[in-house]
Amino acid sequence: MDRSLAGRARLGGIGRSFAGSASSRAGPGRAGARGARARRRSWRLPRIEVPLATPALRFVWSRRGLRWAALALVLAAALLSGGWLWLRHSSLAAVRQVRITGVHGPEAGAIDAALTRAARRMSTLDLHPRALRAAVAPFTVVREVQATASFPHTVRIRVIEQPPVAALEARGTRTAIAADGVVLGPALLSRSLPTVTASTAPAPGRRTGDAGLGEALTVLGAAPAQLAGLLARAYSGPEGVTVAMRNGLTAYFGDASRPHAKWLALALVLGSERATGASYVDVRVPARPAAGFAPGSAPPGALGGSSSSSGGEGMASPQTTPGALAEGLAAAVPEGGARTGASGEAGSASAAREGQGRASESSAGSANSAPEAAAEGGERSGH
Q1: 302 touches 288 (CB < 8 A)
Q2: 8-state DSSP, 154
Q3: Res 74 pLDDT > 70
């Protein structure tokens, strides 16, 4: 019996060893299959978790149809933006016609050429105003450049100039200067410019810092074109800003406030026959201009009303009608006579017509009403 149990035990051990060997023989194959399946799973695309901030985006992304539509819209936007970039720089929008306005003076041809060259490097869908301003930076007379494009090939450029209003004399040199105090250089000098003086002259393109000179330039910049050619020089005197004319007449402006109204008042006085022979005109108060005469030169009934040896200063006499003064202003400063670039002043003739209209309404008004009306009209048109 013991011998039979021992035999069974040996048989059981042989079976277990056989099963173990069989399993060991089959083991590498099964393990290889599991490894292949794991490798295949590792090549699958990972699941992307997109952090969406708003519920609407989460709602769109959670639905497959909406998600594809959103991706299609993004792709279409990219294609359209690329097409727009191509069109902006293609020959379909190339600049071929450049129309320039507002350029005058001896540098007009050079300014036109510089702006045309710069504009032809652009397209009507991609204008660069900074490049246009840089092209005319060497020309101090140019204050601003404005450009508009018309598809497909036209560009319109408007040049805003700061014309010279005086010739600045400093240490034996002469240079042109604008109404805002910017030095323009000697190339823009002309014999018709009145003279102003200073201790030093800034370099072209820079602004003067002299306050007294700045007030004189402001007054000269507001002068109507018909009177600008009659001015000899401007300076600061005991009566403030003083303008000396080529015929010997002196005009006292005081300060630079209300310059347009003061010029209109001066034009009214100069347009009156009774102002003939006056040595100076005081327009420091533009509504009440006064004229002075040399001793013994004032005619009877003239402005100032005095013919004493000491000369006279006063208001327009009652015999000088407002209509006559308004007609004199219309003759001295016709329509469109305001100087270009003089702070937007362009209403001299309209102020004269307004003054004459008020004169016709008043049959017995004094002469002061016409200068006051013209002065008020000039301030409205200048501002």
Answers
A1: no
A2: E
A3: yes
Q: Does the structure show a pLDDT above 90 at 109?
A: yes
Which value, in Å, is the radius of gyration of the alpha carbons in the chain? Answer: 44
One-letter identity of residue 161: E
Amino acid identity, residue 335? E
CB 320 within 8 A of CB 368: no
Helix, strand, coil % over all residues of the chain, rounded to 5: 45, 20, 35
Residue tagged 């079976």 (tokens): 15
Helix (H, G, I), strand (E, B) or coil at 36: helix
State whether residue 46 is helix, strand or coil. coil
φ, ψ for residue 155, nearest 5 deg: -130, 130
pLDDT digits (tens, 9 = 90+) for 283-324: 999 999 988 888 776 554 544 443 333 344 443 333 334 444
Q: Is the peptide bond before 152 cis (omega within 30 degrees of 0)?
A: yes
Closest CA to 163 of 145, 144, 177: 177
Identify the H or E element spanning 132: helix 129-135
Cα 258 to Cα 227: distance, rounded to the nearest angstrom: 17
State the average pLDDT over residues 67-85: 79
Half-sphere exposure at residue 58, Cβ-oriented, CA atoms within 13 angstroms: 6
* Rounded Cα–Cα distance for residues 190 and 176 (Å): 8
Supply the pTM of this predicted model: 0.60
Q: Angle at Cα 133 formed by Cα 340 and Cα 143, nearest 5°? A: 25
Tokens of 92: 């379909």
Please answer whether residues 167 and 196 qualify as being in contact, where contact means their C-beta atoms are separated by less than 8 angstroms.
Answer: yes
| 159 vs 377, residue with greater confidence | 159
Six token digits for residue 36:
């292949």
Structure tokens at 57: 């985006």
- Polymer length of the chain: 383
> How many Å apart are CA 225 and CA 151, to the nearest integer?
38
